[in-house]
């Protein structure tokens, strides 16, 4: 089964294929741009070669279909190619994120934490807000290297950099470097807003 859901793959009739000539947009530049985007998706979502080939073909198909809309008076071939591939990339990434979220649902216990009553009643954040923040943090920290993800998990557990450094048997300065990487990733994701 293809990794791409029907909502990402636009149906193409045989008459469209028969009447459309091969795209002049599929030059080496386009192929390099496709390979770059496929590699980025493979890295971000841990995809195999079979899935990468599906995505590669989908991007080629979308570029081919869009070639009928190309107007050299409005944009260069490279600009048009990048625009088409960017839209395709974003649609595929969005679908893969939805699939990943659906594959690993948050358990009821995780959503509620270990509290016995809703903290919103006492002026704190509600369970729903805490669950949303946990999910946002997990999503933001997922692309980090393994070492920084483990440090982030330890920080959740211990709370202090000194305690994490002590438990890992490393220097605090080393921990602060990891914390800087984690902080930068959180800022990039927009969670602090």
Tell me what you see in this structure.
It is a single chain. With 193 residues, this protein is mostly helical. Helix content is 66%, strand content 0%. The two termini are 39 Å apart.
Return the average pLDDT rounded to an integer.
77
Radius of gyration: 22 Å
- CATH domain topology of the largest domain: Rna Polymerase Sigma Factor, Chain: A
Shape: elongated
- Count of extended strands: 0
User: What is the CATH top level name of the largest domain?
Assistant: Mainly Alpha
Helix content: 55-70%
Write down the domain tally.
2
CATH architecture of the largest domain: Orthogonal Bundle
Portion in strands: under 5%
From N to C, what is the helix and strand string?
Answer: HHHHHHHHH
The low-confidence runs, each spanning 5 or more residues with pLDDT under 50, are 11-21, 115-122
Counting helices, strands and paired strands, the structural category is mainly alpha
Q: Report the sheet with the most strands, covering strand number, pairing sense and barrel closure.
A: none
Helical stretch count?
9
Give the end-to-end Cα distance, rounded to a whole number of Å: 39 Å
Name its key features.
single chain, 193 residues, mainly alpha, Rna Polymerase Sigma Factor, Chain: A, 2 domains, 9 helices, 0% strand
Short description:
This protein is mainly α and 193 residues long. It contains 9 helices and no strands.
Topology readout:
Blueprint: H1 14-19, H2 28-45, H3 49-66, H4 77-103, H5 108-112, H6 127-141, H7 146-158, H8 161-168, H9 172-189
Helix pairs in contact: 2-3, 2-4, 3-4, 7-9, 8-9
């Amino acid at each position: 089964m293809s990794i791409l859901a029907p909502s990402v793959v636009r149906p193409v009739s045989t008459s469209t294929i028969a009447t459309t000539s091969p795209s002049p947009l599929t030059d080496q530049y386009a192929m390099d741009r496709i390979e770059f985007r496929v590699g980025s998706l493979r890295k971000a979502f841990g995809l195999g070669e079979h899935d990468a080939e599906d995505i590669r073909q989908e991007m080629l198909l979308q570029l081919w279909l869009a070639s009928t809309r190309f107007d050299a008076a409005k944009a260069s071939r490279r600009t048009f190619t990048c625009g088409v591939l960017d839209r395709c990339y974003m649609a595929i990434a969005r679908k893969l994120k939805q699939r990943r979220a659906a594959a690993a649902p948050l358990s009821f216990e995780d959503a509620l934490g270990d509290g016995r009553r809703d903290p919103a009643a006492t002026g704190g954040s509600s369970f729903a807000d805490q669950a949303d923040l946990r999910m946002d943090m997990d999503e933001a920290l997922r692309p980090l290297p393994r070492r920084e993800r483990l440090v982030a998990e330890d920080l959740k557990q211990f709370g202090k950099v000194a305690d994490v450094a002590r438990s890992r048997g490393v220097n605090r300065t080393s921990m602060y470097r990891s914390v800087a990487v984690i902080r930068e990733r959180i800022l990039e994701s927009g969670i602090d807003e």
